[in-house]
Amino acid sequence: MTDDRRDPLPVVPSLSVREDAPESQEGRAEQGPAPADLAERAAPPVPAPSGEGLSAAEVARLTGAGEDAAAADRDLNRAEGVDPDSSES
């Protein structure tokens, strides 16, 4: 048998229901103006591509391994209209 008793939530005396609050406060969030010094700011650094490929272990970690992963990959290829049994790439 499980114990369904839970500690009560703490009461925050400063919280209350506002009677004057509108039923719906729908509005649109819009983008504000750009900073005044945007043109003078330096672009953030972007790392250059390393040119190195992933190792087999990294690929397996990303895609999964085993028969289940291979079967799922084949099913996805078929769903996308690609014949996984063809030798064309």
UniProtKB/TrEMBL annotation:
Residues 17-29, 71-81 have a biased composition (Basic and acidic residues). Residues 1-89 are annotated as: Disordered. It comes from the Bacteria. Residues 60-69 have a biased composition (Low complexity). This is Uncharacterized protein. It comes from Deinococcus petrolearius. The lineage of its organism: Bacteria, Thermotogati, Deinococcota, Deinococci, Deinococcales.
